[in-house]
Amino acid sequence: MKISINRLKDYIFIDKSPEEVADLLTQAGLEVEGIEMYDSLPGGLEGIVIGEVLSCEAHPNADRLSKTTVDIGTDIVPIICGAPNVAEGQKVAVATVGAKLYPTSGESFEIKKAKIRGEVSEGMICAEDELGLGESHDGIMVLNTKLPNGTPASKYFKVIRDHILEIGLTPNRADAASHLGVARDLKALLQKEICLPEVDGFKPDNTEKPVEVIVANGLDCPRYAGVTITGLKIAPSPEWLQHFLKGIGLEPINNVVDITNYVLHDLGQPLHAFDLDKIKGNWIVVKRLTKDTPFVTLDDKERKLSGEELMICDEVDGLCMAGIFGGKGSGVSSETKGIFLESACFSPDIIRKGSQFHGLKTDASFRFERGTDPNMPVYALKRAALMIKELAGGVISSDIIDIYPEPILDCNIPVLYKHIDRLIGKKIDRKEIKSILKNLEIKVSEETEEGFVAIVKPYRVDVTREADIIEEILRIYGFEQVPLTEHYHADYLAEHPEKDLNKLQYRLTEILSGIGFHEIITNSLTKPAYAEKSGFLDPKNSVKILNQLSEDLGVMRQTLLFSGMEVLAHNINRRQKDLRFFEFGTCYFKTSKGYREEKHVSLFLTGNQGVESWRSSTQEVTFSDLYAVVELLLEKLNIRMPEVEVIHERPFEYALRLMAGEREVGILGLLDRKTAQLNEVKQQVFFAKLDWDYLGKKATGVKKYEEISKFPEVRRDLSLVIDQGISFDQIRGIAYKAGGKLLQKIQVFDVYQGDKIDEGKKAYALSFYLQDQENTLTDKVIDKTMAKLMQEFEKEIDAYIRK
Q1: Backbone φ, ψ for residue 299 (5° rounding)
Q2: Are 39 and 223 in contact (CB under 8 A)?
Q3: Where along the chain do its domains lie?
């Protein structure tokens, strides 16, 4: 947002430099990102002064040059001039040595001391085009002025110079989206009064052209005001207005449109002018039109309405997309003789929906989406009408129409002094607090020793609670005035030791990338159809988007599965079939108690394990490959593999559910065909979902290295005959419990099912690796450990130990 310092000075007395003003505003929360200089003429005629030609004679070495002496106020300088009309006694514009000229055509250049045909020249007497003032180059400009020599030429030519502040406006500060809004903050910071433009001179010249207005829904449009102005002469705006608009980055159009833009940026109230002759039926209706109604906007594009936009209509058609963009058929043109001038307050929600649906972001929608002052429309309307009457020769031909059935009231906020002291960290004098609030136009009422009630005007849409009032006090009082104590402390609810989950996530990303996975980042918005057709998601739990961009982006995702499958499908359709993906993402749920978010990690494996070569053929990925990755991640997080449960339910053909007590912390398996076909994926996909909220909380840091033990590792093998329903995870759990700290790892090196063992049985050949970190293991300790393992296997899973 661009703000003119010159215009701010019209509102409030400022005796500080632009840089000091920028610092003040930044400290108060309106961050000034830069300061630009605007000149109505390039360079602002800096270094150009009014001079007087004291003498003029022919150049001794050139027929077409003249040798002159010129009084430039501070000195009398020799200048060689090639203009045929230079003469003694003339007042002229002189570019002194060091000045930079920006001619109407060609490159800019700097004036330097020079010798021309043997004669010294210390400056340049300028023609019109050399100063960028016009096209003429027939001779030098002869000035008709009594201004003293040495007077800056910018004063004679009335050059407008302005400093433009570029403010990075945060979304909550809708009130500051104007020069008046910034001036209000300066009022509090400088403790100066604001001078508002007078509108007392407003009165109708006649009431010959009234327009009837109907507002269909007061929630969509709480206030709507308008007035008719006739007898207009559409023409270019005066220079001061054009330069104001150019300074803040706008292109002047014509006097009427420029005035509406001026008032918008000056007061923060968007206006819109309709060509009066194009309003059919002589009445305005503020309403919604049906879905797919065609509407041609000012950019000459036909758009299909969504049915959610608010429209300004006449008896037959839509004239304007309220608060967003005008219509092609009703705009002001060079043929316009009369206008209906609109000034309204629209619901931020409905403007935001329409703006996002059509992808239209305008200065008006920017303000309406954030909330405008409901008390400003009539004042702004009067201000604009008086300017139009002055600059476009108009006649006010109706009373002001003001439809405001339910006025928006001030907000009453109880505030306690003890809370101000606690949150700011310093006790501020009560008189100073009341002075700050008064300068912010926040009234203090019902004051007691304990506190008061703050009365906030509706234009402060961001001030609705006690903490907001305290923030207002602090930003004007000054953050730098709150001293830091010698001993820093803070209130917190964090666990110890504090973990940096971002670093933890980055480390896992490195690990996954190192084993051939690619990270994907997908949209949190997804298709409602996924939940409806998945068979395992409840559509009632979907978080619906109020301002949907499209049907395909209508809800927040409940799982990372389908967005990841879309990426798989995209790659497979382009003949990339061997894929390993992972994603850290958030899932969203609607519950009976409100909304809930969960952070998940997803893993996808499909295709072959590796690239086929002449040395070896490749194999398709299996469930074991996915399981190994999950096991690796848990190991790196120093988390022991949770209990597992074999399941056969959607969206899997088969899967393992990881359980930490009653909490599901992960699930991994082969996706069933129906789920894969929702994204038209025809090859097998192995998918894992891990609860990152749980893993991040339980992790004790990522393992980077371990010291190699000085003592040797011992391997012992066992062959167990067990029921087919017994899983390896059950065996592992029993083993780690019985083996204690000596048991380092377990591996399966053979599985047998056949006629050599009983039906319903299977045989696992297992390796057990034992190691003591402090001593060399003896046979006695090894035998004792293995005996305990065999005893537990026989007891817990009825295993038969093959010898």
Answers
A1: -85, 10
A2: no
A3: 2-40+161-190, 42-156, 212-403, 411-481, 501-698, 714-802
- Classify domain 42-156 at the CATH class level: mainly beta
Q: Does the reported pTM lie above 0.70? A: no
Cα separation of 677 and 766, whole Å?
39
Cα separation of 433 and 420, whole Å? 10
Q: Are 225 and 263 in contact (CB under 8 A)?
A: no
Neighbours of 126 (CB within 10 A): 25
**Domain spanning 212-403: CATH 3.50.40.10:** yes
Q: Does residue 742 contact residue 772 with C-beta atoms inside 8 Å? A: yes
As averages over each run of 10 residues, the pLDDT of the chain (803 residues) reads 93 93 92 90 90 92 90 92 91 93 88 90 92 87 91 90 91 92 94 91 91 93 95 93 93 94 95 93 93 91 92 92 91 92 95 91 92 95 94 92 94 94 90 93 93 94 93 92 71 57 89 94 92 89 84 89 94 92 95 91 92 77 92 87 86 91 91 90 94 87 67 89 84 86 87 83 89 87 89 87 76
**Domain 501-698 coded CATH 3.30.930.10:** yes
Instruction: Enter the CATH code of domain 411-481.
Output: 3.30.56.10
Instruction: Return the CATH fold of 2-40+161-190.
Output: Phenylalanyl-tRNA Synthetase; Chain B, domain 1 (3.30.56)
CA atoms in the 13 A half-sphere facing the CB of 519: 14
How many alpha carbons lie under 13 Å from residue 210 in its C-beta half-sphere?
7
Gyration radius (Cα) of the chain, Å: 39
Tokens standing for 586?
Answer: 């958030």
101 contacts 178 by C-beta, under 8 angstroms: no
| Eight-class DSSP state of 210 | -
| Adjacency order of strands within the sheet including 761-770 | 743-752, 761-770, 714-723, 800-802
